[in-house]
Each structure stands twice: as C-alpha cells, then as structure tokens.
Amino acid sequence: MNTKTTILIADDHPIFLKGLKEVIESEPGYEVIFEAKNGQEALAIARTRHPMVTILDIDMPEMNGLQAAEELIKIIPDANVILLTMHKAKDTFLRALDVGVAGYVLKENAVVDIIQAIEAVMTGNSYISPEMSSFLLSQRRAASNNPGVNELLTTLTPSEMKILKMVGSYKSTKAIADELFISEKTVSNHRMNILKKLNLNGKNSLLRFAIEHR
After folding, report:
1. 6 pairs with which residues across the strands?
2. pLDDT digits (tens, 9 = 90+) for 73-126
3. 181 CB contacts (<8 Å, ≥6 apart)?
4. pLDDT digits (tens, 9 = 90+) for 143-182
5. Which of 10, 15, 12 is nearest to 35 (CA)?
6. Closest-CA residue to 130 (of 98, 103, 162)
7. Residue 44 CA to chain centroid, in angstroms?
8. What does the alpha-carbon distance between residue 193 and residue 75 come to, in Å, rounded to a whole number?
9. Is the dihedral of CA 30, 34, 37, 38 positive or negative?
10. Considering only 6-10, 67-71, 163-167, which range has the smallest mean pLDDT?
11. Cα 28 from chain centroid?
12. Which among 93, 113, 125, 23 has a CA at the least distance from the CA of 32?
C-alpha cells in the first residue's frame, strides 16, 4: 500500500519542473505522480485523479494557475493547493486567499520553501514564503485609516486581539496554542468568535483580514 503523499506539479518550464520534482522527491514521504504543462491540463488531472497536493505555477498558458486553482477548489473544496509565483503582487496574493489557496511560494525560494509548504497544507495550515510576508508587511494598510475596522476591532477581547495578531504572523492553530499554553480547541473557539465579530466568511478570510490590518 502506498502511504506517500501524492503530488501534482504544473509548470510550463520543463527545467524548473524537473528540478522541483527532484527537490520534492528527495523527501521520503513525497511522490510526484502527475506533471502538467499548463493550467487546463493540471485542472483536468487534479479533478479526476485527486492528488493530495496540487502545486501550480501562476503564469501558465491556456489557463493560469490562479484560475486553475479557483476552478479546482470549486469542484473539490478541500483540495490542498500551493501556488508558485515570480511576482510579489499583493492583489494576486489576496485573490489567492479568497479562492482558498493554502500555500503561496515565491519561485526564487521554491527549492527552500516547497517542502515546508507541503508539510503545512497537509496538516491543514497555510504557508506563505517569508519574503512574501516581508513584502506584505511593507505594503500593509494601517487599520487606523479605516474607522469601520477600528469599530469592529473594539468588540474583540484582549485574548482575541492577541490571537488575531498571531494569525497575521501566519501562525497555525497549534503554534498559537503552544505559545499561549492553551488547547487547540480553545484557539479554534477564539477564531470562530473573531470571525463572527468581524463579520468574516470563507476559508482564509481571517488570515486575509489579519494580514491587511495588522
């Protein structure tokens, strides 16, 4: 019985595709079982063959990676999708969060980041390349510029504010629980309360809010 994590990777550059596959398969628990050269091919494979993780380059012909991710997640809501990109574009990143993408990796750092990204999404967490995080911090919109947001934030308890800040630092539920010496269930309950108070819906809505307003 194959207990390895099955992975689809899609990129229209054969040399990069080959190199990424070698990096992934250097880890004993991972196996790249499908390769695609464009977004349409990747979507067709992923929706019928159900790899555990789907890794898509954003800039691909026939259908870009973000479009393929959006279509795939509509069909398979719990699909683990990681996007690869050469560009530090905030709007594209936020759109990826909106559609439910779990991992966002800069291609320049893919060799270093991809294994951590796979590990994160396979445990139900998000992963964003550290360089992308630094870029987003430099581009952030201050919450103080939005009175409506400020009003919503005042409804949060000190504990909820602390957790919101930690979410904005890309910390997983487990990491937050460990750091605050509370159970993961307690963290999950806090997260649900924060979502209700901030009127947020969607898979990555809390992460997006935390990133935009930290």
Report:
1. 31
2. 999 999 999 999 998 888 888 889 888 999 999 998 898 899 999 999 998 888
3. none
4. 445 557 778 888 999 899 999 988 888 788 888 999 999 9
5. 10
6. 103
7. 21
8. 28
9. negative
10. 163-167
11. 23
12. 23
The residue type of 102 is A
What are the angstrom distances between the C-alpha of 149 and each of 36, 83, 113?
Answer: 42, 29, 33
Residues 96/69, Cβ–Cβ less than 8 Å? yes
The Cα–Cα gap between 173 and 171 comes to 7
Structure tokens at 50: 């159900």
Tokens read off for 91:
């709007």
Residue 176 amino acid letter: I
Per-residue burial over 15-54, b if 16 or more Cβ lie within 10 Å, else e, is eebeebbebbeeeeebbbbbbbbbbbbbbebbbeeebbbb
